[in-house]
UniProtKB/TrEMBL annotation:
<feature type="domain" description="EAL">
    <location>
        <begin position="24"/>
        <end position="279"/>
    </location>
</feature>
<protein>
    <submittedName>
        <fullName>GGDEF domain-containing protein</fullName>
    </submittedName>
</protein>
Length: 280
């Protein structure tokens, strides 16, 4: 009897393994066609002044309108896209589309100071012509480089330390600012932070969402704020969800923020309506 159960279990395991491999291969296949089928969309989440809630710019966040699975979030496909290399053409599409869209809004709403932040994957930094690609996009969309912000993580810099730093310096020379995303999580390299060409620290949501309940968290945010000030950088708080968190951040003199309390990521039509309303 034990033997029979054991065998049954093996079969269940095999079937599950088989299913997940098939699903993964299907996903890889679907991803490869998604660009030409125009299934990707960008959602835009406003970045605001913590004090007033006024919009200073947007972060571009990719979504995938999958033919059968509905609207997918990055968590459902970005890691697969990174493993297969599909993230390179996808990343290029996001950059061009986000730059084109921001330029349109700047003209439409006479909103020249609005900025757009685009997330870059470390795979994109292994492309030797990344900087040329970005220059090309800026030219073809007519966007002022000072309107473009690139979000990278510390591990992206550390994975390609020398070449990434060189590329970041060139991007910065063009007038593009570099945001360090999810700051404070994972690969923290405080000792080399001052050597990275970074303009803004984005304080990870995990430090913001417990800022009220966990007495250590405000201190950590305070330390990050002090660090940013000493390095001549700005800070953006990610994931602000409550009025209490916002007030705490005001006290800590964190100027910029992003989170559901202000706005969720929204489609481009909604984003345009939000800009119109913000500018009244
Ligand atoms: P991220 O760059 O740290 O983006 C912030 C994430 O936090 C977004 O998730 C956003 O929807 C979510 N968020 C914003 N405010 C709040 C809040 O108040 N509460 C909570 N709980 N969440 C909030 P999303 O859109 O699912 O993106 C997840 C991650 O996927 C991003 O994290 C980024 O690392 C990656 N990603 C998104 N778009 C792209 C892209 O175009 N290229 C690459 N390479 N990565 C991308
Ligand atoms: Mg980001
Ligand atoms: Mg982030
Ligand atoms: Mg994050």
């Amino acid at each position: 009897r034990a033997k029979v159960l054991g065998k049954a279990r093996y079969e269940v395991f095999d079937i599950e393994m088989h299913d997940s491999v098939v699903k993964l291969m299907q996903l890889e296949n679907d991803l490869r066609r998604a660009i030409e089928r125009q299934e990707f969309q960008i959602y835009y989440q406003p970045i605001v002044l913590v004090d007033t809630g006024r919009i200073t710019g947007f972060e571009a966040l990719i979504r995938w309108q999958h033919p059968t699975r509905g609207l997918l979030n990055p968590v459902d496909f970005i890691s697969v896209a990174e493993e297969t290399g599909a993230i390179v053409p996808i990343g290029y599409w996001v950059l061009s589309e986000a730059c084109r869209q921001l330029h349109t809004w700047q003209l439409e709403f006479s909103a020249q100071p609005l900025t757009i932040s685009v997330n870059l994957s470390s795979k994109q930094f292994s492309q030797p012509d990344l900087v040329e690609q970005i220059i090309h996009i800026l030219h073809s969309t007519n966007l002022d480089p000072r309107s473009l912000k690139l979000e990278i993580t510390e591990s992206t810099i550390m994975e390609n330390a020398e070449s990434a730093t060189a590329m970041l310096l060139r991007l910065r020379d063009l007038g593009i600012e570099i945001y360090l995303d999810d700051f404070g999580t994972g690969y923290s390299s405080l000792s080399s932070l001052h050597r990275f060409p970074v303009d803004v620290l984005k304080i990870d949501r995990s430090f913001i969402n417990t800022i009220q309940t966990n007495h250590e968290k405000p201190k950590i945010v305070q330390v990050i704020m002090t660090l940013a000030q000493n390095l001549g950088m700005d800070a953006i708080a990610e994931g602000i969800e409550t009025v209490e968190q916002r007030n705490q951040l005001k006290t800590l003199q964190c100027r910029y923020g992003q989170g559901y309390l202000f706005y969720q990521p929204v489609d481009k039509q909604t984003a345009a309506a939000i800009i119109a309303q913000d500018r009244q």
